[in-house]
Amino acid sequence: MTTNSPWSNPIDPQIFYPISPYNKLLNSLSWPDPNQWLNHWLIRGGVNLAYSAWPLGTKNDWIWGIGLPFLSDIERFIYKKERILFGISGLPGCGKTSFGKWLEAAAYELDWPLKVISMDDFYLDSEALDKAMHGNPWKVPRALPGSHSIELLEEAIENWKTTGNLKTPKFDKALRNGLGDRCGWSNSTPKILIIEGWFLGCGLTDAKNNSMEDKSMKTKPLSTKERDYQVLVQSALKDYQPIWRRFERIWHIKAMDFISTRQWKSQQEMNLQKERGASIKGESLNLFIRMIETAIPQGDLQSIKSNVIAKLNSSRQIRWVGENKKYSN
């Protein structure tokens, strides 16, 4: 038993989540004995697997709590005949994109044919995107339901499922002074495809019978324009529901406090500015964050139809990880 594992005595000081639901998750992933699971991954590198692909400062709770269990979930399907679609859902800035990069790096070391893409890559082309986003009360250039080419996404998934060939667009958020635009195409032949997105798996609210405003929101009440636009967002979100049903498994990286996305999104844009020299900032960033908080009812975003949940505090520490009993299969 390594001193860096979740079962150490004393336990690794970087691990904060309870062990019982974690063990139940491993059991659901065909590992009833944690020691056997531990040895399985220690042979493959343990916390050192693709370690350089993690962002600087990543703690062991992400490696043990999400990284290696996610790989164990994938491993159940990697040698089967059919191609499998996984999803990662989480609020902007929570770490899902960085996690996706690590998954690709780890899969490369394991010689697994895996590809991670983002819903963001399926944004409409610039002209159609500007038209679709025109008039929204937050003045955001993208990210809302309705800003993606659903037809293109469906075609890409279907063609990959049928032929094994995956052709997807690439979107660069730094282009057009931070408005973003398409910047080419990517071709690959993965056995496992993972798609990540901030409202991936989100269901619908019945606007006629339910209030779409969360009275517990730690922000100012919805304006009339925001309330009216929520109805349009729900209408657009209907087109995504058939996509969600195609996922074999969805993992939800869930904020324990929804307000954390303010901090996370600001940090994300600061990093984009450093890396690419263009980002959303100032009042535009404030409005973007306001959109995240109000465009889709927070209750819907916090109850994603996922199989596994990893709960994060505002510092991105994992405080709980386990099966989502409501939706797990």
Summarize the structure.
By secondary structure, this protein is α/β, with parallel strands linked by helices.
Protein architecture, described:
The strands form two sheets. The chain has a six-stranded mixed sheet. It has a two-stranded antiparallel ribbon with strand order 3-4. The chain has eleven helices and eight strands. The chain has one domain (19-323): Rossmann fold (3-Layer(aba) Sandwich), CATH 3.40.50. Helix 9 (260-276) crosses helix 10 (282-294). It is 38% helix and 16% strand. A hairpin with a 5-residue loop joins strand 7 (308-312) and strand 8.
Keywords:
globular, two-stranded antiparallel sheet, six-stranded mixed beta sheet, 11 helices, 329 residues, 16% strand, alpha/beta, Rossmann fold
Produce the secondary structure layout:
Elements: H1 19-28, H2 34-43, H3 60-75, E1 84-90, H4 96-110, E2 114-118, H5 126-133, H6 150-163, E3 166-172, E4 181-188, E5 192-197, H7 224-237, H8 241-244, E6 249-255, H9 260-276, H10 282-294, H11 298-301, E7 308-312, E8 318-323
Parallel strand pairs: 1-5, 1-6, 2-5, 6-7
Antiparallel strand pairs: 3-4, 7-8
Helix pairs in contact: 9-10
